[in-house]
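Subject: complex prediction, re-run

Hi both,

The earlier run crashed halfway through, so I resubmitted it with identical inputs.
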Amino acid sequence: MTAIGHHDNIGRCDISQLCLLAGKIILQNGGETYRVEDTMVRIAAACGISQSQSFVTPTGIIFAIEGTAHTTRLMRISQRSTNLLKVTLVNDISRQMSRGEVTPEEAYSLLQRIDSGASGYSYPNWLKVVTAAIASGCFLIMFQGAWSDFWPVVASGGIGYLFFVTLHRVVPITFFAELLTAVLIGLLSVLSVHIGFGTDLDKIIISSVMPLVPGLHLTNAVRDLMAGHLVSGLSKGAEAFLTAFAIGAGIAAVLSFY
Amino acid sequence: MDMPAQLVTSFIASAAFGLIFNVPRTALPQCGAVGMLGWLVYMMATELGMDEIPATLIAAFLVSVVSQLFSKLYKMPMIVFSVSGIIPLVPGGIAYDAMRNVVENQYDAAVQLSAKAFMISGAIAIGLVFSEVIGQMIKKSERRRQ
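This time it finished cleanly. Structure:
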């Protein structure tokens, strides 16, 4: 129990604050539920608190430190995105803390920097749009499409993703951003086939919507369910289903008129 | 079938998905490699006449095993590698066909196709979880030996 003596100057509230901040960053950026719980418990243990409990759902974290001075805190998570670099960095910090290489104060300032620095920890949006366009083109080839359809797919996939990124800033509801993007991609694909730029409408549409596919949510949902996190598994599954439904409905709306 | 083109495009597509998910820059080639491996196994299995569902299961299992190895090797969370690796296996085409049939009022075909899409996503999930369980068992038995 030397750890307690070493960190006597930080109170229990600060420790729970530190754990919650780490958990919040992982949860907001696409980490799995068990990783959130694991990280918070590990950080608490590194601060000398062996008894801690956490309850994590995609929309909020409850973290409690047991003992004589019982503290329980709640953290609401309202916005979620995917940034695996932040998840990796927080994971590194918690590992360094359990090895005793980083003090809780240092960890807290590091975590705050990761939490606030949105641009420094993310690739620029133009690069993401370009890679989404290239990925769409590659998917066309993987789905046995013709090379002549490559550029139409790159165009509709890239424009679609650009539209999604810009729209998501204006419309905070992801469902509508995805729905409108799917409609736009459908329209662009139909247009490109109509003017003779592309040939195979089905393959063009499938490849262009691939950057929007909820692969991460789907895998996280099943892993959470299997690990016994039933509440977060089901709600992440609902999120993945909503995204798939938005894409499907948007494309279906275009197809029903074509 | 044009194998080299398949390998190159699956590598690029998986690495591109890694970039969209903001994985650390040093992990991008590994993401591409994991995706390429999964797609290669899936392609070979279906070429040999295997059904899509078991082919997806095997491919997802391998993706997960390699992701675990990479996460040990590069000291990064496993999710960094596995997420972009399974993207080529996601049954986007079948889900699309299902929806197209719904729009054309052919509900029997739509139900058939969506059941297949559901089975394939289930196969991806089971492949991932299965290898993770084995990994945890190995880890536990190693700990017991120490």
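Residues 1-9 of chain A have pLDDT under 50 and may be disordered.

- K.
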